[in-house]
Amino acid sequence: MNVAIIGGTGYGAVELIRFLYNHPNVTLTTIISHSNSGTSFSEVYPHLSDLVNVEMESFDEDQLAKEVDLVFFATPSNVSKHQIPKLIDKGIKCIDLSGDFRLEDHELYEQYYGEEMAEAKYIDQAVYGLSEINNESIKGASLIANPGCYPTATTLGLIPVLANDMVERKNIIIDAKTGVSGAGRSLSLNTHFSEMNENFKAYKIGNHKHIPEIEQVLSKAAEEEIQITFTPHIVPMTRGIMSTMYVDLKEKQSTNQLIALYEDFYKYHPFVRIRKEGVFPQTKEVYGSNYCDIGLYADQRTGKLIIVSVIDNLVKGASGQAIQNMNIMNGWEETTGLTQLPIYP
Ligand SMILES: NC(=O)C1=CN([C@@H]2O[C@H](COP(=O)(O)OP(=O)(O)OC[C@H]3O[C@@H](n4cnc5c(N)ncnc54)[C@H](OP(=O)(O)O)[C@@H]3O)[C@@H](O)[C@H]2O)C=CC1
Ligand SMILES: CC(=O)N[C@@H](CCC(=O)OP(=O)(O)O)C(=O)O
């Protein structure tokens, strides 16, 4: 199958290329770059010299329709909503790494993304690509809204207890941390070395665009409206997300009972790994891989369950999950092209 990537010189794109390079069923024929068309990809990323010799092109839907079957969008917010409809109308499948098609409520989209949402007809076609949870609907989809990085780590951590009605719906607290690559490759003062080095900061408290996304996913899993308290932080590391969640258990449970529940919930899902009692996952343990690792602690004193969930933001939080979704859409083994081991140390 031939595929294209749009947003060619960003971090999501280069990470897609790393995995597609070893994918047995796919040929990357086209890389679209609005800033570097006409340039060879390896001129921008010399670590791929002699490996990815593709000359980047400008966006042209007619040309794409001749060349490819599926397109990955690794563009900033409010870009793919203009281009995806043109490709879908030509029968090309699309997987969007941005947030343009994730939310169902147009008012929330306008509030958090600052612009009008994509046309309703395309929003209705989009399937939210949380691979482990929406596997069945991903199979028949033409348009995947790939989840955000924080929502992936967070919802995979919370859904087993919410879907099994084991925790109170109120007071769900999510304390999350990300590495700097979560902000993409463009320069910004926030991620400048001297602002980040030896520093640790909270940001976008109360107005992060992942709040409505996480609430939408959790409300579906719990079958009632869920509200969360979500505080993101940025830490001076390149990759990784750790989401630490605090919820009130409805009834007393031991940590081991909950571990058994999570193991059972994810037993058919190779990319979710549950730690044993007393062991908690670290971001380095999933670095460069598509794993989401989860650790649990049921605090018998307070009745709270603490859930620690880690992913690599660029892999399970973006490009890896996008490839997992492509595999599911095409009926291929879910892990195809994604079996590289995590990099350690
Ligand atoms: N980084 C992460 O951890 C995650 C990112 N995402 C989402 O994935 C998407 C890509 O992220 P990421 O790769 O990190 O971001 P980057 O900023 O690194 O890359 C985005 C790329 O999109 C292209 N681009 C920029 N502006 C425009 C424009 N106006 N029109 C068309 N193309 C444009 C540029 O490439 P070129 O000039 O070559 O076209 C740019 O390099 C974003 O929506 C992001 O929110 C989702 C989950 C995690
Ligand atoms: C460090 C940093 O800035 N991280 C980004 C990650 C969000 C992201 O990439 O999300 P979407 O896929 O939803 O656009 C942020 O918090 O906005």
From TrEMBL:
Reactions it catalyzes? N-acetyl-L-glutamate 5-semialdehyde + phosphate + NADP(+) = N-acetyl-L-glutamyl 5-phosphate + NADPH + H(+)
* EC numbers on record: 1.2.1.38
Q: Name one GO cellular component term.
A: cytoplasm
Residues annotated as domain Semialdehyde dehydrogenase NAD-binding:
2-141
Q: Which GO terms describe its biological process?
A: L-arginine biosynthetic process
The pathway entry for this protein reads as: Amino-acid biosynthesis; L-arginine biosynthesis; N(2)-acetyl-L-ornithine from L-glutamate: step 3/4
Q: Which InterPro entries match?
A: AGPR (IPR050085), AGPR_AS (IPR023013), AGPR_dimerisation_dom (IPR058924), AGPR_type-1 (IPR000706), NAD(P)-bd_dom_sf (IPR036291), Semialdehyde_DH_NAD-bd (IPR000534)
Q: Which residues form the active site?
A: 149
Broadest EC class? oxidoreductase
Q: What Gene3D superfamilies does this protein's entry cite? A: Dihydrodipicolinate Reductase, domain 2 (3.30.360.10), NAD(P)-binding Rossmann-like Domain (3.40.50.720)
Give one Pfam family, short name only.
Semialdhyde_dh
Give yes or no: UniProt keyword Cytoplasm: yes
Record carries keyword Cytoplasm: yes
GO terms (molecular function) for this protein are:
N-acetyl-gamma-glutamyl-phosphate reductase activity; NAD binding; NADP+ binding
- Where is this gene product found? Cytoplasm
**What are the protein's UniProt keywords?**
Amino-acid biosynthesis, Arginine biosynthesis, Cytoplasm, NADP, Oxidoreductase
Q: Which HAMAP family match?
A: ArgC_type1 (MF_00150)
What is the purpose of this protein? Catalyzes the NADPH-dependent reduction of N-acetyl-5-glutamyl phosphate to yield N-acetyl-L-glutamate 5-semialdehyde.
The UniProt similarity line reads:
Belongs to the NAGSA dehydrogenase family. Type 1 subfamily.
Can you name this protein?
A: N-acetyl-gamma-glutamyl-phosphate reductase
Species of origin:
Gracilibacillus dipsosauri
